[in-house]
Design goal:
Rossmann fold, five-stranded parallel sheet, alpha/beta, globular, 31% helix, 19% strand, 9 helices
Length: 290
């Protein structure tokens, strides 16, 4: 029997369990804060699985899924917490493969090396590049989009594409918010350039997630899928595009915007309204039960 839950009240996962068979769950800001895992959120996913549900992490990480899995394992994520993972890196890899062999200006930290495994891409300066491949600022903690304006002006003059491996604008990292590749891509687009993206909120990453669900032998029903995330422009807008319900996590990247230690429905509605999106459900944090 479906438990009673009101969209105006915070939702925990146990009360939503009867409504959904599959979760598309974000990582940064939902199950980790950028520095450490959030135990209650990880436990919620494990309990959903134990009750017969399917959990797929859907992340805008520029790493491939194997890299994300290794990182979460190093952070101490318990085995059996999730069934599958797909990343923006996975989704954009096909685009990069179409451009190989080729020459690219690389923007991004060394930790994103696995995105390029198996691809014949030579990294060059902007004057010799055929496109830009961006996984984020070179300086992970302190880089800003404006740091790249000069090189983007050259790229624009040469009519180059910017291939963006992480559409997120910002992510939560401990008590800080840091810029992602999406912020650089947004600046380039505002300057008149072309940015190519495949992660959330765009459809390719959701197609990969659906493939994971169907590979498990489950019949796919979008009405039984719940997307969970803290990004209105990515997680929530992406859920709307994919035709699935969304659970907005209020204390992620927009926690400081709530102007309260205890987010309420009105504050959440205001935040989502600023981005012209809506979510069927919301919660301060992802938990199994109150």
């Amino acid at each position: 029997m479906t438990q009673t839950v009101s969209p105006s009240q915070p939702a925990n996962l146990s009360r939503l369990r009867d409504r959904y068979d599959v979760l598309y769950c974000d990582v940064w800001g939902v199950i980790r804060d950028g520095r450490s895992l959030l135990p209650a959120a990880v436990d919620a996913l494990a309990r959903f699985r134990q009750s017969g549900g399917f959990v797929c992490l859907v992340s805008n990480s520029p790493q491939r899924a194997r890299g994300l899995a290794a990182m979460l394992d190093q952070m101490g994520m318990p085995a059996g917490s999730v069934d599958a993972m797909v990343t923006s890196g996975d989704a954009i890899h096909a685009e990069l493969a179409l451009r190989a062999p080729g020459r690219a200006l690389r923007i991004g930290p060394d930790g994103d090396d696995d995105l390029y495994d198996g691809l014949e891409i030579e990294f060059t300066g902007i004057e010799d590049a055929q496109f830009i491949s961006c996984t984020g600022p070179d300086d992970y903690w302190n880089g800003k989009p404006e740091d790249y304006r000069a090189v983007l002006e050259t790229a624009l003059a040469r009519d180059l594409d910017l291939v963006c491996a992480n559409p997120d604008i910002i992510v939560q990292s401990g008590d800080r918010l840091i810029y992602c590749a999406g912020a650089i891509a947004r600046l380039y687009t505002a300057m008149g350039g072309r940015s190519v993206v495949a992660g959330k909120p765009h459809r390719p990453i959701y197609a990969l997630a659906r493939t994971k669900v169907e590979a498990s032998g489950r019949a796919f029903d979008p009405k039984r899928v719940l997307a969970i995330g803290d990004g209105p422009e990515t997680d929530i807008a992406g859920a709307l595009r994919a035709g699935v319900d969304a659970l907005f996590i209020a204390e992620g990247i927009h926690g400081a915007d709530m102007n309260s230690d205890s987010p309420d429905f009105e504050a959440v509605a205001d935040i989502l309204g600023n981005y012209d999106v809506t979510a069927r459900w919301w919660a301060p944090k992802l938990v199994w039960s109150d």
